[in-house]
Write a structure and sequence with these properties.
364 residues, alpha/beta, Isopropylmalate Dehydrogenase, ten-stranded mixed beta sheet, two-stranded antiparallel sheet, 14 strands, globular, binds nicotinamide-adenine-dinucleotide
């Protein structure tokens, strides 16, 4: 079966880190005897300059026809004055909406070799950390209607509507349980059920879905407590399931716990692999205009996003694990890009391209 991947390098360091991710895909092809059909397309500022649109119709059509999309990053000061709907970020928001990506998965991993990058006390992370935040991406207070601002009783009043229907909760819960099945089988659902009606429905539906996954240990936690537990005892978590608003905040907190933007991958899905959903895989970081074109960017977040794609869209678990192990071996041997080298004595500085070569060489 042909594995169709659309590659969207985007702007800034996007093309630099994706070139290394593609290098890794070719190494996977050689080692595992599989083959990927790669097609490159424009998005973001690059697309706006070439086509007058940050998400050209041709790009969207290519993504819709693909199994997976690999994205670099979009944006930069060059397009700060562009009309709002033509800014690079508008292309990103639109592609998520058009592809129906409702599940965002962000692993926060602290490799023991890099524990010093975490902002937490060393004893909390010295064994490493490995948690996954599964965040609902298309509903909640961000999209609920009515929303707006009006004058009432002589004062300005603004409002948003926190709303979920059970189908939205069920489908994201299934993604989270499926992810937990492939990990340590522990799922913590985060809500505010002591206050919010929406959260009470959330909890009820998650429990119902949980009945189909007796092998997964399900727990529930209030969001305020979860924010605290994440920094005092992060190792207790395996998979965290959250609604859009809470997940927005908790996934960034988890990123802070992990330490470096250049290491964090993500996946956005329109369904599970079984249901034939499409996946968009991208590093969490942006286009880093301050280091663009200097061969300094850390490509590991893009490479680890590729590993997620191999596992989640293509079911190539062995290949995904091999890529992760190649990354860890490279780090264990002391190689670092500049962003993760600071304060780490005895490390060997690598450029973006060299880091890609090193990981690829450890895959053969
Ligand atoms: P950023 O993530 O681009 O950069 C923040 C800091 O981290 C910078 O100092 C940068 O050099 C560093 N950094 C980020 N990724 C790195 C990597 N792989 N290797 C080494 N260092 C890295 O965030 P920002 O500066 O707030 O935003 C820059 C642009 O990126 C803006 O236009 C913003 O809108 C856009 N952005 C895009 C995405 C996306 O495409 N998904 C996400 C966030 C920001």
């Amino acid at each position: 079966m042909e594995k169709n991947i659309v590659v969207l390098p985007g702007d800034g360091i996007g093309p630099e880190v994706l070139a290394e991710a593609v290098k890794i895909l070719h190494a996977v092809e050689r080692r595992f005897g599989c083959s990927f059909a790669l097609r490159e397309a424009l998005i973001g500022g690059a697309a706006y300059e070439a086509e007058g649109d940050p998400l050209p119709e041709e790009t969207l059509a290519a993504c819709r026809a693909a199994d997976a999309v690999l994205l670099g990053a979009v944006g930069g000061p060059r397009w700060a004055e562009a009309p709002v709907d033509k800014r690079p970020e508008a292309g990103l928001l639109r592609i998520r909406k058009e592809l129906g990506l409702y599940a965002n998965l962000r692993p926060a991993v602290v490799f023991p070799e890099l524990a010093s990058l975490s902002c937490l006390r060393p004893d909390l992370v010295e064994q490493g950390l490995d948690l996954l935040v599964v965040r609902e991406l298309s509903g909640d207070v961000y999209f609920g209607l009515p929303a707006g601002e009006e004058r009432r009783d002589g004062a300005r009043q603004a409002f948003n509507n926190m709303i979920y229907d059970e189908r939205e909760i069920r489908r994201i819960a299934i993604v989270a349980f499926e992810a937990a099945m492939k990990r340590k089988r522990r799922l913590c659902s985060v809500d505010k059920a002591n206050i919010l009606a929406v959260s009470r429905l959330w909890r009820e539906v998650v429990r119902e879905v949980g009945a189909d996954y007796p092998g997964v240990e399900l727990s529930h936690m209030y969001v305020d407590n979860c924010a605290m537990q994440m920094v005092i005892r992060p190792a207790q978590f395996d998979v965290l399931l959250t609604a859009n608003l809470f997940g927005d905040i908790l996934s960034d907190e988890a990123a802070g716990v992990a330490g470096s933007l250049g290491l964090l991958p993500s996946a956005s899905l329109s369904g599970t692999a079984q249901s034939g959903g499409i996946g968009l895989y991208e590093p969490v970081h942006g286009s880093a205009p301050d280091i663009t074109g200097q061969d300094k960017a850390n490509p590991l977040a893009a490479i680890l996003s590729t590993a997620m794609m191999l596992d989640m869209t293509f079911g190539l678990k062995d290949a995904a694990v091999a890529v992760e192990q190649a990354v860890r071996r490279t780090l264990a041997e002391g190689f670092r890009t500049a962003d993760i080298a600071a304060g780490q004595p005895g490390t060997r500085l690598a450029s973006c391209r060299e880091m890609g070569d090193l990981v690829a060489a450890r895959l053969v």
